[in-house]
Specification:
Largest sheet: 8 strands, mixed
Radius of gyration: 19 Å
Structural class: alpha+beta
Strand content: 25-35%
Helix content: 10-25%
Number of domains: 2
CATH architecture of the largest domain: 2-Layer Sandwich
Distance between the termini: 32 Å
CATH topology of the largest domain: GTP Cyclohydrolase I, domain 2
Number of strands: 12
């Protein structure tokens, strides 16, 4: 079984510019899920939505081609793909000849599906459509307006509480203050998060302090979002809950996990200004 420490993260890596699917490094989700009390089938639905900003290959005449790609990995996949390995894998397309974007797309679909253990979705966007790519901030009431004192910088779920004696509410809350660190290298990961729920009103000051408490926490994006989901689900007991984070890009990739307590349509993969 692969572990994060065995990956290329934090290590000098050779630049391979000829297609090589073996560069993909899958990591099982199970160990980190066990830490938050998720064993067997998860309690949530959703997916990890990746945006690839640096995708290039050669056509059959050797002329470079470029595109964006959006990749969707269902959260029920047994594995994630470590992000540096994904970048190295994509770099291996750079001097490889392909017939067209469709061939590139289907090659990525097959390789990433094999690595994650489940069929993935992929969409490529050609240069003729680049100027149609929107930028939009997450919808909802922004918690960052609150003037709170922050004393915890590792996850502190005890900060979460809800008004169980009051009528239930339905609301969507956001914050741009999410920060965590890479599980292996400790490098900072910056993100925005949206929490939508129905149920007992969650104390907003406590929720913001809780989100800030991830600031010195070392975990991958997908794992942070699942930890937030489970902490809110367990302590605040909503009837419905979704947690959606959009992290700023690193190495030409951004990762945007979405988890929901019920089957729901995924959000549109639209980047924020910081991405």
């Amino acid at each position: 079984m692969n572990t994060p420490e065995q990956s290329q993260l934090g290590k000098a890596s050779s630049y391979i510019d000829q297609y090589d699917a073996s560069l993909l490094f899958p990591i099982p989700r199970a160990d980190k899920r066990a830490e938050i009390g998720v064993t067997g089938s998860p309690l949530f639905f959703g997916a990890d939505m990746w945006t690839v900003y640096e995708l290039s290959w050669l056509n059959l005449r050797g002329k470079p081609q470029v595109a964006l790609a959006q990749i969707t990995v269902p959260c029920e996949s047994p594995n994630i793909v470590e992000s540096k390995s994904f970048k190295l894998y994509l770099n291996s397309f750079n001097n490889t000849r392909f017939l067209d974007a469709r061939e590139v797309r289907e090659r990525i679909r097959a390789d990433v599906s094999f690595a994650t253990g489940v069929g993935i979705g992929i969409k490529t966007i050609g240069p003729e459509l680049f100027d149609r790519e929107p930028v939009h901030e997450m919808d909802g009431l922004n918690l960052d307006r609150l003037d709170v004192e922050c004393l915890h910088f590792t996850p502190a779920p005890e900060l979460l509480f809800a008004e169980f004696d009051e009528p239930p509410v339905t609301e969507t809350l956001t914050s741009n203050l999410l920060k965590s660190n890479c599980l292996v290298t400790g490098q900072p990961d910056w993100g925005s998060v949206q929490i939508a729920y129905s149920g007992p009103a969650i104390n907003q000051e406590g929720l913001l302090q809780y989100l800030v408490s991830f600031r010195n926490h070392n975990e991958f994006h997908e794992q942070c979002v699942e930890r937030i989901f489970m902490d809110v689900w367990t302590r605040c007991k909503p009837i419905k809950l979704s947690v959606y984070a959009r992290y700023t890009r690193r190495g030409g990739l951004d990762i945007n996990p979405f988890r929901c307590s019920y089957p729901a349509q995924l959000p549109q993969n639209v980047r924020t200004a910081r991405q």
